[in-house]
C-alpha cells in the first residue's frame, strides 16, 4: 500500500496523465500526494544572442507555480489530500532526477509517479531522460506514465 505518493510535474501532457494516475491511486489507497516541480534552467538552449537570466528564472518559477496550482485544483476536485512544493534549487544544476529522488526520500514517499515523454533516438540522446534518471537512482517503486504521442 502506498501511503505517500510523490508526483513530479512539468506542465506537459505526460505530466497531466501522471497526475490522473496518481490521483486514482491516492483515492483508492487513501494516500497523500506531494506534488513537486523542479525549477531548473541549466538545460535551456538558446538560439539568440542575448537573454536576461533573471527574467528567464522568473518565467520558469511562474510556470512551475502554474503547473502546481493546476495539479492542486485537480487533486482537490478529486478529494485527494495533497501538498505542493516548488523546488527552486535542484541538488545540482541539471540534476532534476536526483532532486526528485532526494525529495521522495526526504518526504518518506512510498511511490514516485511521473510522466515520460517517450523521446527516442537523437532527441533522447541530446535532451536526456529525467524519467530514466529517476528509475536509475531511486530505491523506491516508480510509476512512469507515457503520453500517447511523442512530445
Automatic annotation (TrEMBL):
UspA domain span: 1-146
Coiled-coil positions: none
Organism domain of life: Bacteria
Name of one Pfam family that matches: Usp
Signal peptide positions on this chain: none
Family: Belongs to the universal stress protein A family.
The protein's name in its UniProt record: Universal stress protein
Source organism per UniProt: Cupriavidus respiraculi
Amino acid at each position: 500500500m502506498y501511503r505517500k505518493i510523490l508526483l513530479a510535474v512539468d506542465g506537459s501532457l505526460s505530466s497531466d496523465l501522471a497526475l490522473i494516475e496518481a490521483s486514482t491511486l491516492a483515492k483508492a489507497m487513501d494516500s497523500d500526494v506531494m506534488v513537486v516541480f523542479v525549477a531548473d534552467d541549466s538545460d535551456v538552449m538558446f538560439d539568440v544572442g542575448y537573454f536576461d537570466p533573471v527574467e528567464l528564472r522568473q518565467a520558469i518559477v511562474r510556470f512551475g507555480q502554474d503547473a502546481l496550482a493546476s495539479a492542486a485544483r485537480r487533486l482537490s476536485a478529486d478529494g485527494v489530500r495533497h501538498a505542493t512544493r516548488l523546488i527552486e534549487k535542484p541538488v545540482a544544476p541539471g540534476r532534476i532526477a536526483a532532486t526528485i529522488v532526494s525529495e521522495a526520500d526526504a518526504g518518506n514517499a512510498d511511490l514516485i509517479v511521473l510522466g515520460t515523454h517517450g523521446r527516442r533516438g537523437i532527441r533522447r540522446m541530446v535532451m536526456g531522460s529525467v524519467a530514466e534518471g529517476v528509475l536509475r537512482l531511486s530505491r523506491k517503486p516508480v510509476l512512469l506514465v507515457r503520453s500517447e504521442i511523442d512530445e
